[in-house]
Amino acid sequence: MKINHYEKELINIANEIIGFLINNGAKKNDAQDIMQDVFVKLLQADILLAPDKLRPWLYRVALSRFYDIYRRQKRYRDILLEQYAQYSEVEPILADYSGLQRALEKLNDYQSALIVLYYDDRKHINDIAMIYDVSSSKIKVDLYRTRQQLKDIMMGYENE
């Protein structure tokens, strides 16, 4: 069976999109499933797109599917945490976070935003880098330095 030019182009674009999704935080299996869903949608739509319109359409549909999966997983996680807290017989042990709160208040706005985005909002390094329009390595370095600064501030509180 000989693969024609259109099918070769689809395979190349599919591999490109899978790599793009993996680089943006999708697991390999999820990226492959998303691409399979995109192909199913393309077949169900029963359309033959021109090569110049094929790539944007595939990217748009794949990104839409990726965002849907991300939102669904986030919602499931939130529901599970809510249900766990509601039905848990054991009260969570709450440590004294006043030292942490005071230490966070001593950080500048950028540093505290990094901590909140990374730990509370559970954003990936790449997402934070896109928000601040800087490289991911800069975000990693800034997070490391911020954690060290928090550690030093909190050690100072313990020594008081």
TrEMBL record:
Transmembrane domains' residue ranges: none
Pfam short name (any one): Sigma70_r2
Keyword Transcription: yes
A single BP term in Gene Ontology: DNA-templated transcription initiation
Residues annotated as domain RNA polymerase sigma-70 region: 5-75
Keywords in alphabetical order: DNA-binding, Sigma factor, Transcription, Transcription regulation
Keyword Transcription: yes
GO molecular function: DNA binding; sigma factor activity
InterPro entries in UniProt: RNA_pol_sigma-70-like, RNA_pol_sigma-70_dom, RNA_pol_sigma70_r2, RNA_pol_sigma_r2, RNA_pol_sigma_r3/r4-like, WH-like_DNA-bd_sf
Assigned protein family: Belongs to the sigma-70 factor family. ECF subfamily.
Protein name: RNA polymerase sigma factor
